[in-house]
User: Fold this.
Amino acid sequence: MRNATTATDDRWVVVDVETSGLKASRDRVLSIAALTIDENGNIGSELSTLVNPGCDPGPVHIHKLTPDRLAGAPKFEDVAPQLMEMLDGRTMVAHNASFDHGFLKLEAMRAGIDMPTKQRLCTVALSRRLQLDLPNHKLATLAGHWKVMQSNAHDAYDDAVVLAQIFTHSSRLARSLDLPLPVTMCTERLTLYPDSVPRTDCGWENPGRFDPSQGLIQGMRVVISGSTNIPRLQLAARLDQAGLDVMNSVSRYTSLVVCSDPTSESGKVRRARANGLQVVSESHILDLLDAVRPGTPKGERTSIVVPSPPSPQARLEAGKPWQDRRVLVMGGSHVESVLMRSRLIQLGATPAVNLSAGVTDVLVLTDGDGDPRMPRVAERGLTVLTPVLVDSALNLDDPIAVGPVRPKIAPLVPRGGVLDLDPGMTSLSVNVSWRASDTDSTAIDVVAFLLNSDELVSSEEDFVFFNAPATSDGGVALTIDGDSEQGIGIDLTSVPADCERIVVAGAIEGDATFGDIGAVSIALDGHGAPVATAVLDAATTERSLLLAEIYRRGAGWRFRAIGQGYDDGLAELAVRYGVEVDE
Assistant:
């Protein structure tokens, strides 16, 4: 264990953990490093230690922490007092901060300790807010950009030292741009019912609704409602072993519902009756399991052959003279801003939501010249546009060229637009950002739903949000954790076979609306490079908004920008997709 204590004005604590897996509720912390630092990057206190988890350490080939190395290490509760003292009263800084915070919080809960962290900062979110000219925002990439030596990747102490330097450089640049840092509160606001049935891949086609004269057939979709004599998960396992497809939500594709009391008035039973479905008792279905008829095996997915029009990227780029520009709109009313952003999109430009390092031009509307960011615009020598210039560029056969030539920006997908993903793309992320502000701290939660052919989640695990930031295999996870940047990472090779689409949505806490927020920017990244962007700018009274979806098209995948909103919040949105929420 390494530790030191030096008194400094250190308001930040940089943290890195190595873990036995990706899911905090199942896996354990193997090593911890924490450094308190001040605004100039000076280190105050240090903690670096291995942790004996009392279990298999998982992917040793990554972290190199073998059972022998961990055998003599202290347990988490032994190092927790010093760690909690360092965390108390400071903002926690980490790369993918929700991951590190989630693991530490679960370890603290197991040890019966209250974790004092009230707010955190994700350096991935900070990097994305700055819009640095980088292929990705990995720790190694940022270290190279800032010329920080990285000598021992996946060592908690070395990663924390590297991250402390990256954070110091990045926060200085943010201050020079008058960009607030992406500090977010550590809160939990939504509770799910326990004992959700985990999804398993059923190998048989759904034969339809249950007919008492025919009995059970493999592939039938069965939903369990209410308390059961046999523990719910054990009952689900027995049904699964018999070849039935056990689901958590009732839909028109459900075959039957099981309830210990079929006269119950539970929500699932009421929904079953409304859909004309059979509701059987627990004892009845156990009897029926003695004679389950064989089902029809599921076939393989095949590619859909369609004509080959011009590629989506070619269609999006055609006639887009400003496609290499990222333009920030300053001033004007909400209506004027929306109008001018739409005209910029027609020209191919990408509207920016913050004065970041990636902004190439600034469009000044009424009173925009009084924006407090204008001195920074002048310092950086950015091209200042006027509405007249934009309008003339739209009306001329030979549009006006403005400013220097910039590196190409990913194609802009309009609301409702679709983009076919490269067949070789297996890893991607949907990253969402909106205007950062020190004065308006409206919280937006970006979430993901893994939906089956019923347009419902098959399991509560298929709802990824702040309380459950990843599926059990880590295939879909929250990867960016900021107050105005959040993202969803997706490993398409890990997406379950019964998942037809992944919907990424945003929901606002409190009474604010997306009309108050203004433009929301979406960036689709894959293989460490930008693939597409979208800007949603038509919201008014909505408090939840479907942002984008990744969905199957034959054997491939597509991306769609959505922009459909609802006037209610996250709980109601989750319920629409079949998630059971404790009100």
Summary: The first helix runs from residue 60 to 63.
